[in-house]
Amino acid sequence: MTIKLKRRLIRLFLLFTMTVFTILLLFFAGNAVKKRREADCSFAGRLADSLANELLFGKMPTARDLKAYAEELHTWVFLSDGQRTLEGPECFPTPLSDLTGQIRSGIGITGIEETVSSRQEGASSRRTTHRLTGRESETYYGIQMSLYGPEGSCALILIYPLSGVRDILLKDCRLYPLLWLLALASMHAMSRFLIGRALLPVEASVKSQKEFIAAASHELKAPLA
Question: Are strands 109-116 and 139-149 parallel, antiparallel or unpaired?
Fold first, then answer.
């Protein structure tokens, strides 16, 4: 009886502790995905700001520079100053027409910001950020900027791929299954020890009851005979 009780208590202990530990691991994994996505968005924002500053100062990159820039950073850029239009090569699974169509139609807008440049008098910009979805359920961060300066206006569109959930989990959370197994092994050993210690009085009581019954039955055999 005590063995069955011990096994049942161990199972309940493991179920409770491992459920709590699993919830914690899922929380940390979700936080890792969130932080990586925020880092990707911040990086894309810095890229757009650097290109916007060059455009405001009249520094339009060449087609070769833009191609090398887009291939190195795995991003797509569209630039236009009213006289020339440049855009990087296609580098995403989803056609650019679908992604730019989502931006121009206002789908997935996450923020709108208007600023006045402190580096150049009379310069301002309007930035619209988008969360885009590809055909293979991949996600992108899109930035559309309208730049206004003393020499005219410019347009900029930047699309940057966000890290996939699977890639983030494989890179940042690859040790989580090992931690779960280690926690299971340690909790199992701890439960056996603690529950075994807790059941010692119960085992002693059961043992004494068995000894009493055995002695009483032995003493009663002679008179009954």
Answer: unpaired
Edge to edge, the sheet with strand 85-87 lists 85-87, 76-80, 152-161, 139-149, 124-133, 109-116
The phi, psi pair for 113, rounded to 5°, reads -140, 135
Read off the pLDDT of residues 49-91 as tens digits, 9 standing for 90 and up: 888 887 777 777 888 888 888 888 888 888 887 778 888 888 8
Long-range contacts from 172-176, C-beta under 8 angstroms, 24+ separation: 172/32, 172/36, 173/28, 173/29, 173/32, 176/25, 176/28, 176/29
Strand partners of residue 116? 124
* Amino acid, single-letter form, for residue 51: L
Rounded Cα–Cα distance for residues 201 and 47 (Å): 69
